Each structure stands twice: as structure tokens, then as C-alpha cells.
Amino acid sequence: MIKNYYSPSTLDELLKIKNNTNGVVFSGGTDLFVKMRYGIIKPQTVIDTKKIKSAIKLENRKLIIPLNTTYTDLLEFLKKNKTNLFLEKIIKLIGSPMIRNRGTPIGNIANASPAGDFILATYLLNGNIIIKPTNRIIPIENFILGPSKIDLAQNEIIYAIEIDVKNNYKFFFEKVGKRNAMIISIASIAVLLKENNGKIEDISICFGSVSPTILRDKNIESKIIGEEFSIELFKYLANEFEKLSKPINDVRASKSERKKLVYNLTIKAFYNLKNEVVSI
Amino acid sequence: MRIKFKLNGKEVTKEVEVHKRAIDFLRDDLKITSIKEGCGEGECGACTIIVNGKTVHSCLMLAVELDGKEIITLEGVEDSIKMAFVKAGAIQCGFCTPGFIISTKYLLDNNPTPSEEEIRDALEGNLCRCTGYIKIIEAVKIAAKGCENND
Ligand SMILES: Cc1cc2nc3c(=O)[nH]c(=O)nc-3n(C[C@H](O)[C@H](O)[C@H](O)COP(=O)(O)OP(=O)(O)OC[C@H]3O[C@@H](n4cnc5c(N)ncnc54)[C@H](O)[C@@H]3O)c2cc1C
Ligand code: FES
Ligand code: FES
């Protein structure tokens, strides 16, 4: 049962309380309260970050999303600044309006679920995690260590996520099986593509829920730069990612079904990207 | 902990234990029983309230978080929206209705002339076991028309 509740209004205060109490930090509570209900965690001390003022920033072709930014705040910012608008497709499928009004990208990352939709977006956009008080800046793929495991010390908190600004790309996102409070989606894919005269100029491909963490392979991506954007290429990719995926068996889908999904989603991505007009 | 907030426009000051969820505080201590607990984990939307202009789940929130906020519950929603639900016959057992009405208010406050798709998106976090949703969507359309006429 919660015995102590703190709601500091400055970052310094937050870090001091975190260091002294080792309480559980929370923002939207949309993961935390579900976990408490199921008795997965039983914190005595909680530290609410919401009184700390923060603002999203666009700097040097990076988007900096600080703590307490909700999905609703982020979407409003993207629309106002006409940047990374493809993220709307991911955000609109996270929970419901109420979840998006409270839930935060940072909470999603700290939760480290293999199905975390914003973790997927952060991998896709070469994200870095900015940590206080140590000022460590760590690439997302090094920060997420496994399901529910992150590289964060007891006295540290996530201060912000930094992701690439990418505009004029083609984008495909699909999530199979609707995600809810305790259950993760069966599989998801996101592809961000820049073409130049029918050839791949830049590409980023990520899968959710088909491995202990998000599946992305930068070697494969760099190997196919300059290749023709074709079904043959995507068949090759589909095969490679099917091999690379390490899904689990669970009640919603077997291992082999999930592997097949990786293949099929990659092929589907090709046909959708082919017909897509470049969005800003 | 002592908290102070505005509930449907009226100042409330009250002592509350820090472990108490917002839904338990509002229902048990303040007797706002229009707030329903369906699932207790963010799935059904029956516990939806408006906090500083945004819909949230009162089952995934502590009461102490209400401190300094402006809260709207069913009791603070304009009659025109409630009447639209009655007119459309969108209420059967009524358990889900307060949550749907709160989501409708949030939608219409931000978008007074929603399309059918926007209505469906706005209600995606509210579950109803009885009506099959068609009459609920009808109710929101009637409510939207009502708002237009008032303007
Ligand atoms: C009904 C329902 C549907 C959902 N649907 C989806 C979905 O479709 N896709 C999806 O990805 N997720 C979904 N979720 C999960 C959840 O909403 C998201 O993961 C959300 O982004 C969590 O953010 P939060 O701010 O609410 O996190 P919180 O619950 O506040 O925190 C989550 C974790 O992060 C830690 N934390 C929070 N802030 C910090 C910080 N600054 N530094 C370090 N650690 C921190 C907390 O201690 C906790 O362990 C759903 C949840 C529910 C209840
Ligand atoms: S009771 Fe809160 S969402 Fe169901
Ligand atoms: S009217 Fe019964 S749940 Fe909606």
C-alpha cells in the first residue's frame, strides 16, 4: 500500500527525493496502476513527476520529448509544427483518448514492454534516452535490456527522449491484435522509407512483440541502401526478419504463427509503401 | 493529505489518504456515484472524468492528484448532452452511460461538428455491453446538433 506521496515541482527536488527514498516515479500511471492492481509491484513511496514544468523542443533536427509530455501533448505539437506527422498513425492506436491524455512516451519506455508502441517509434527514429542527474545519453537499443529491464540506476530518472526529425518519408505501420491493459499485441511493424528514383535512399524497419525487445537490424538496412525498391527486395527482407525474430508462444499466438506474421507484414509493407504518397 | 480542487465549478477541500484512488474518493467520500467502476484497469471507460479539460480514468489515478485541478463529472455536464442520450434511446442498463456522456462532452468541447468517424474515435475507450453502440452514436449526433443550435 502507498504510504508516502511526493509531488515535487522542480527537477532538483525530484532527484533529491528519488535518491533519498528510492520511491517509484510515475507520470500518467497507466502502466503503474495496472501493475499495482495485479500486485506485480507494491510501492510504499510514489513520486509524481507531473508538477515539474516541461516543454517539447525542436533542436538541430531532433525532437526532444521531456518527462510529463502525454501522447495528446505530443500529437498537438507535431500537428502545430508540421513535423513527424506519420507518428500520428502510431499514437492514435495507443489505448484510447483517456490513455493518451494521461500516458506518456517516457512511461512507455521505462516500462520496457516488447510491445511498447512508443519504444518502437523510438527505435525507428534512432532515439536517445536522456538521463538525470548523471546526464547520460544512451541509444534506445542499449537502454532497453529486455522485457521490463532498463539501464537505469536507482538514483536516476529519464528526463527526456530525443528522436530524429524525419519528413518527406513514406511510412507504414500495422499492429496485429489490439493492445489492452495487461495483454500485448501479437505483432507490429513500422517502416520509414525515403526513395530516390526508385532506389532506397534511407530506410528504417522495426518489429514489435516478435522478440524480447524491438527487432531492428541496422546492418541489413545499410546493406540495401541504393537497391531498387522492389518486391524481390522485400521478399529478401521478409525472409531475413523471419529468421531474426525470436517470438514466444503464448495464448494469443504460437511461435510459428508469429514468425509467419513477420514475413507477411513485411510483404504487406511493400505493397502499402508502393502506393503511398510521400507524407510530410 | 489535505487536497483542494474544483468539482463541477464548486470548491472542495478535503482530507484524503494518499493510497486512495480517485474513483474511491469521489464515490465513497464525496458520494459521486455516477462514476462507475467496470474493470478498474483502464479498459471500459465507465470511470471517466474530466480533469483540467481532458478525459482520464479515475480508476488509474490517485485522489491526491486531484489537488489544484478542475474536475467535471456527469453532474457538471450540460443537460442537452444528457437529453440527447435519452432521445436516441441510447441507454439500457445505464452502467456505461456516464462515461459515454463525459467522452461526448470532451469531444464536443473540442470539436462541435464531428464526423461519424470522429465520433467513433472519440468513444473508442468506452465499452457498452447492452446497446450495440449504434444508438449511442446517434445520441452524439443529436447532441452535436443541439450544440450547433445553441451557438
Ligand atoms: C487500457 C490500456 C491500453 C493500453 N494500450 C497501449 C497501447 O496500445 N500501446 C502501448 O504501447 N501501451 C499501451 N498501454 C500501456 C501504457 O498506457 C503506456 O505504456 C504508457 O505510455 C505509459 O505511460 P505512463 O506515463 O502512464 O506511465 P506510468 O504508469 O506513469 O509509468 C510506467 C513506468 O515508467 C516508470 N517511469 C515513469 N516516468 C519515469 C521517469 N521519468 N523516469 C524513470 N521511470 C519512469 C514508472 O516507474 C513505471 O515503472 C495501455 C495501458 C492501458 C491501461
Ligand atoms: S473502471 Fe476505469 S476504465 Fe474501467
Ligand atoms: S447500457 Fe448497459 S453497458 Fe451500456
Automatic annotation (TrEMBL), chain A:
<dbReference type="Pfam" id="PF03450">
    <property type="entry name" value="CO_deh_flav_C"/>
</dbReference>
<keyword id="KW-0274">FAD</keyword>
<dbReference type="InterPro" id="IPR002346">
    <property type="entry name" value="Mopterin_DH_FAD-bd"/>
</dbReference>
<dbReference type="InterPro" id="IPR005107">
    <property type="entry name" value="CO_DH_flav_C"/>
</dbReference>
<dbReference type="InterPro" id="IPR036683">
    <property type="entry name" value="CO_DH_flav_C_dom_sf"/>
</dbReference>
<feature type="domain" description="FAD-binding PCMH-type">
    <location>
        <begin position="1"/>
        <end position="168"/>
    </location>
</feature>
<dbReference type="InterPro" id="IPR036318">
    <property type="entry name" value="FAD-bd_PCMH-like_sf"/>
</dbReference>
<dbReference type="Pfam" id="PF00941">
    <property type="entry name" value="FAD_binding_5"/>
</dbReference>
<dbReference type="InterPro" id="IPR016169">
    <property type="entry name" value="FAD-bd_PCMH_sub2"/>
</dbReference>
<dbReference type="InterPro" id="IPR016166">
    <property type="entry name" value="FAD-bd_PCMH"/>
</dbReference>
<protein>
    <submittedName>
        <fullName>Molybdopterin dehydrogenase</fullName>
    </submittedName>
</protein>
<dbReference type="InterPro" id="IPR016167">
    <property type="entry name" value="FAD-bd_PCMH_sub1"/>
</dbReference>
<keyword id="KW-0285">Flavoprotein</keyword>
<keyword id="KW-0560">Oxidoreductase</keyword>
<dbReference type="InterPro" id="IPR051312">
    <property type="entry name" value="Diverse_Substr_Oxidored"/>
</dbReference>
From TrEMBL, chain B:
<keyword id="KW-0560">Oxidoreductase</keyword>
<dbReference type="Pfam" id="PF00111">
    <property type="entry name" value="Fer2"/>
</dbReference>
<dbReference type="InterPro" id="IPR051452">
    <property type="entry name" value="Diverse_Oxidoreductases"/>
</dbReference>
<keyword id="KW-0479">Metal-binding</keyword>
<keyword id="KW-0411">Iron-sulfur</keyword>
<dbReference type="InterPro" id="IPR002888">
    <property type="entry name" value="2Fe-2S-bd"/>
</dbReference>
<keyword id="KW-0001">2Fe-2S</keyword>
<feature type="domain" description="2Fe-2S ferredoxin-type">
    <location>
        <begin position="1"/>
        <end position="77"/>
    </location>
</feature>
<dbReference type="InterPro" id="IPR012675">
    <property type="entry name" value="Beta-grasp_dom_sf"/>
</dbReference>
<dbReference type="InterPro" id="IPR036010">
    <property type="entry name" value="2Fe-2S_ferredoxin-like_sf"/>
</dbReference>
<dbReference type="InterPro" id="IPR036884">
    <property type="entry name" value="2Fe-2S-bd_dom_sf"/>
</dbReference>
<protein>
    <submittedName>
        <fullName>(2Fe-2S)-binding protein</fullName>
    </submittedName>
</protein>
<dbReference type="Pfam" id="PF01799">
    <property type="entry name" value="Fer2_2"/>
</dbReference>
<dbReference type="InterPro" id="IPR001041">
    <property type="entry name" value="2Fe-2S_ferredoxin-type"/>
</dbReference>
<keyword id="KW-0408">Iron</keyword>
<dbReference type="InterPro" id="IPR006058">
    <property type="entry name" value="2Fe2S_fd_BS"/>
</dbReference>
